[in-house]
Amino acid sequence: MQFQIQAKVGKARACSFTLAHGNVVTPIFMPVGTQGVIKGLNSLDVKHVLQTNLILANTYHLYLRPGIETLKKAGGIHNFANFHGNYLTDSGGFQAFSLGENVKHEDCGIAFKSHIDGSKHFFTPEKVLDIEYAINSDIMMILDDLTGLPATKERLLDSVKRTTKWAKQSISYHNMQKEKYDIKNKIFAIMQGGTDYDMRKRSASELIELAFDGYAIGGLAVGESSQEMYECLDYACDFLPDLKPRYLMGVGTPENLLEGIDRGIDMFDCVMPTRNARNAAIFTNHGKINIKKTCYKNDFTPLDSQCNCLTCTNYTRAYLHHLFRANEITYHSLASIHNLYFYITLLKDSRQAILDQTWQQFKKQKLDDLAQIN
Ligand SMILES: [Zn+2]
Fold first, then answer.
1. Distance, CA 13 to ligand 1 centroid (Å)?
2. 190-213: per-residue pLDDT in tens?
3. Residue ranges of the tRNA-guanine(15) transglycosylase-like domain (predicted)?
4. Which residues have a catalytic role annotated?
5. Does the annotation flag 67 for ligand binding?
6. pLDDT digits over 335-373, tens only?
């Protein structure tokens, strides 16, 4: 994979790399489209309004519904959803974690019961890749063993060992498929080890040996404090190779993203912008506001006067407040567009600041601004 570091300030980096559906520049925020759609948006919104070309879909959910036969017949997720940018698919490790008691981790894979109809399924590293080939995801995350925090040293060690074992199976299966077919899908491994220095170091070195296209830091934002996460990122990024993308999974607030970039992270995803939007929480350049509050009933200014998104350039806080109170579907769409645009723009601006060598000043100013309303 062609990967280039275009600028650096401290550990913060502006990079670019090429995927099957176009070039990606970082730092980047990837909107989450679990079911093959970003909740409240259609694919044209993603292309023309959000103007981004890398989004997430979820292997576990798409496998259960619509199923891989339908995805194969559609010619992959790009045709099925009519979005021809890049997709990254999560491997199912996080779903296994979040399904809790419906899941059993075994050394050869993860057994789970469908949350839809209770049917039984078993994911092996190879099976996960087969599903991801059917989806035709541009970045395939491999199966990992994720544990919540706090965790015992024994459980962390188990998770690291199992994740390495599954990584070995995944890369050897993928290399075999590459020999047989003209496969352009990239494959990323997921580092585990909780907030334990030695475990993270071990997990990273074992995975790096296997030469994946990129590396994710998994197992964070699962119960630890932001400070603990930052301390972990301080060393975890140093364990990863310079010339490969680094992806921090499932994180987080705008502040978390800025701190992550500062420690060398290139890629982020989180459901927070869309989930918060649905619950009336709107991100602005001056902190988070709750659009449900009565003070916005007659506020005829945009959600964020510094934002150029479709929502802010066409509608007022008063109108969004009204739509929320009236429980109108259009509220979800307009609020999600704004929150996602806010996240995507924050990272595009961060990239520009790194390229301009003004990152430190930019970060400080943004953190000060974001703290205003909180
Ligand atoms: Zn906006």
1. 26
2. 999 999 999 999 999 999 999 999
3. 11-369
4. 90, 269
5. no
6. 999 999 999 999 999 999 999 999 999 999 999 999 987
